[in-house]
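Reopening this ticket.

The earlier resolution said the output was attached, but the attachment link was broken on my side. Pasting everything inline this time so it's all in one place.
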Amino acid sequence: MKRLGKYSYSSLNTFESCRKKFQFTYIDKIKREKKGNAPAIMGFIAHRVLEKLYKLGFENVLYPKDEMVKYYQDEWNKIVIDYIEVTSDFQTVDDYIKIGEQILCDYYDKFQPFNQDTLLGSELNLFFTLPETDFQFNCRIDRLSKRADGVIEIVDYQTGTFLAKATDKSFHFQMGLYLLAVRANYPDFKEIELVQYYLRHGETVRYRMREDEEDNLIEEFKQMIIETMNATSLKSFPPTESSFCKFCDYADICPAKIHNLMIEGEAESSTGELSAEMLKDLANKFIEKNKESKAVKEELDSLKAQLIEISKQHEISIFESDLGKVNVSIKNDLKFVTKTDDPKAFSELNYLCRESGLDDFFVLDSRALMKDGVKKQRLAPELQEKLQQFIEEVEVPRVTVKKKSEKDTDDRKIIR
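Inline output:
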């Protein structure tokens, strides 16, 4: 199965948050003119300033605070203002410039002279192979330091508004991946602490992973990569709509956004004779019928089939409606043959599994065998190969409704 050359926290996080964006970015490699958003630019410049503070600190040079502020302002001045997007309704680019300056000044006052620990690396690129696999990773670590007590610190700076806990998934995967990278590149480092500085909050989160947690992490990353490989093999990349969509470079070609862009006149119809209003009418009907009794099931199934067919033909996954949204998610998946589909093949599959000692799946639970055995590649390679003859690719459509809240309805009335 096809895989990426090297994986990173960013690529796997993209896959977890939106498979369609993963496809556009890492599989199709669609290039877009980059328009940086203000929070990301502020974070990037803040990282550059902190890198300079610690590199000079390592030479026992304290960078004057006023010069630090000037350096920060000069970095902003290098950026053409027209290429900066602000997604907040309440803040401007100047606001983000001020926020960045303030958090750097606060950090400066708290941690200067920046030579308390031995700097081992700043903006450090590390490459490694995930243990017990041939999956390759690259990581970029903000700072690697050694304290006076001998403990190694893997440091990451966060400039966003979210304050994570050490038990949060975001902390676990990002900092855990950095830990695996350091372990692989510096095997003599024994005591390692994971540290994230949340600059807007003035808070620090520290954690030391246990050995069993590291072992579990390796298996989790392995399964995440296998999942991306399965999706690539099946060309299964449904979009996921979220608050991150406003930062996405691919909104104009995303199936989740096309219908809305058609309604707003910002995208040409790719649906032939099916206009934006006709699609909206179809979504309206589906939501209305979805509220009614089982007596209209046949009509509801017909509407569902129309939505699925349009979604497949024209790559539209979200249909806008006056009443809400209809989300059509179509995944390609794998399943074993069933007794109903092919009794002879099912009998042979049954025999093969019993002969191979897969007692955990009997009475033959082909779904469990597929999910926990085949997809996660936990079976012996020879058996995995033998099972392929009983596997078929299937389409798994799912149509869901997200109704508009009373607040949305009131807002719509006000706008009109």
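Reporter confirms the inline version is readable. Residues 243-327+399-415 form one domain. The longest strand covers residues 324-336.
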